Amino acid sequence: MIHGSSVPVESASWQNLLASSITDPRVLLTRLQLDSSLLEGALAADREFALRVPEPYLQRMQPGDPNDPLLRQVLPLGEELNEQPGYVADPLGEQQSNTRPGIIHKYHGRLLLVVTAGCAINCRYCFRRHFPYADNNLSTAEWEQALDYIRQDSSINEVIYSGGDPLAANDRRLAWLTRQIADIPHIKRLRVHTRLPVVIPQRVTDELIDALCGTRLPVTMVLHCNHANEVDAQMLGAIARLRRANITLLNQAVLLRGVNDRLEAQIALSEALGDNGVLPYYLHLLDHVRGASHFHCSDSEGQQLIGQLLTRLPGYLVPRLVKEVAGELGKVPIHVDLVNP
Ligand SMILES: *Cc1c(COP(=O)(O)O)cnc(C)c1O
Ligand code: SF4
């Protein structure tokens, strides 16, 4: 059942699942039969960045396990409030690149569109936890300005829907936007960066696929899945629908202490996705965002891990280790040597 309603999850609409996400730390702890000693810290950290976890994601967690790798990604912890040197509100300087509403244009040829401010889930490590989202819900006039910006710069050949989570927008908005973008001759491809097919697989409907795939533009979707336990039957159903629509599927993950920082976890993630047609793209080193320092893994831990992975998996199942550095021309690749585990 969805929290606070009598609709079973399997037959709920994605809108319903999105609206009925769990946002009360008390409810989360009770549902997972977790110790109430976690509550005080959870309530304090929740005031800084709200808890938000959709029901289909919660159902993949192991009750009674405070170290569950999915729970760790969403549970607010008191330690988030400890200031750590070097961990800041806007580690990527995006508030400067975000000079026009709705647009982040940092790299050559690719432009990121903030389609909607909202997300279906609040990931504790998110570099956008302090992002001024409220300023990024565009009016019609602002949408026209953003589209004009793309029309006027013929060096841009790829538009990336981002957010927030762009699939939190409704299909009508996505269909309209995609048609506008497909009408711009220099745009050759469309990309969607989203975690929604992972956390609420019911989001992947025929209407969504029509909205994204109804134009001349080839579509690539970059999912954000961090752990093999996130890959359940519902998510595989969503992946199968996306593949039938000829959407190229990739995955980006974030290297997170206590979630996926072990070789076995990375192997399981790559295999669970790769065997179902989703190839790994990037493994991101954590951005040093205030409140996320407990997830930190050093560059050399990342290098060690990917160096080992390269000796265990085919090359196409090994993600590229990258980090975002403010002011750089693209994601910065981290050099990796082979390591015998
Ligand atoms: C990550 C990112 C992109 C896409 O980079 P790719 O290396 O092409 O995946 C584009 N714009 C911004 C602002 C980004 O952060
Ligand atoms: S879904 Fe993505 S953008 Fe949203 S909170 Fe999680 S990491 Fe951040």
TrEMBL record:
Its cofactor is pyridoxal 5'-phosphate. Residues 105-328 form the Radical SAM core domain. GO terms for molecular function: 4 iron, 4 sulfur cluster binding; isomerase activity; metal ion binding. Keywords: 4Fe-4S, Iron, Iron-sulfur, Isomerase, Metal-binding, Pyridoxal phosphate, S-adenosyl-L-methionine. InterPro entries: Aldolase_TIM (IPR013785), EpmB (IPR022462), Lys_aminomutase/Glu_NH3_mut (IPR003739), rSAM (IPR007197), rSAM_sf (IPR058240). The keyword S-adenosyl-L-methionine applies. It holds the Pfam family Radical_SAM. It catalyses: L-lysine = D-beta-lysine. NCBIfam families: EFP_modif_epmB (TIGR03821), KamA family radical SAM protein (TIGR00238). PANTHER family: L-LYSINE 2,3-AMINOMUTASE, LYSINE 2,3-AMINOMUTASE-RELATED. This is L-lysine 2,3-aminomutase. It comes from marine sediment metagenome. The lineage of its organism: unclassified sequences, metagenomes, ecological metagenomes.
